[in-house]
Amino acid sequence: MSTPSSGTHPTGQANLVSFLFLIVLSVIGVGITDYSPADAHRYWLFMIFVCATVAMMGTVVKSRGQGGRQHVSRLAVQLLHWSACLAAVLITYALIHNGRLNNADAGLVILLLLALTAFLDGAHVGRHFYLLGTLLGLMTLVMAYVEEFIWIILIISVFITLVAIYWDRFSTQRAKSH
After folding, report:
1. With 80 as the cut, is the pLDDT of residue 44 above it?
2. How far apart are CA 152 and CA 105, in angstroms?
């Protein structure tokens, strides 16, 4: 943990650590998808709950010190946002049950829903969720079109992680200069 005099805000560090944690879990999900595409949908469903929890914790931290009503309102928006994603996942499961979608394809659909939800949540939580949503969307695209996708996804993940770190440092330096 850095001190305020070092220029890195503890909340910003926590956001970056949370983002890196979600990146690692996403890359693990890619490995699971590669190993067992038919079971991947369960992992991506789990990731929806993890991302929702991280987003809500970020909202709590961001709204700390503000009025109780605004705090509750922001949490309600988060709950509604992630519940909508979960409702879309339940519809996906109905399509599986109906025979219109197989388990392997359902994993990609759920990952795409997670990507969209995370990206849109960037407006509420912050830039890391924009980057996470972008990464998850690119993962979906690569997994759908490339047979040996793990190395490509690892390279994209490293690139987006470096963008996040650079972006944080740039923002910190810019804030210090103002």
Report:
1. yes
2. 20
DSSP 7: T
**How many distinct structural domains can be found in the chain?**
1
Contact 134, 121 (CB under 8 A): no
User: Is there a domain that residue 22 lies in?
Assistant: yes
Helix 150-177 to helix 127-145 angle (10° resolution) is 160
Give the span between the Cα atoms of 146 and 138, in whole angstroms: 12
Long-range contacts of 148-153 (CB under 8 A, 24+ apart): 149/30, 149/34, 150/30, 150/31, 150/34, 153/27, 153/30
Q: Which residues contact 18 (CB under 8 A, 6 or more apart)?
A: 54, 57, 58, 128
Which residue range forms the structural domain that includes residue 117?
18-26+37-171
Q: Are 75 and 66 in contact (CB under 8 A)?
A: no
Decide if pLDDT at 8 tops 80. no
Closest to 121 measured CA to CA, from 77, 161, 73, 159? 77
In-domain check, residue 131: yes
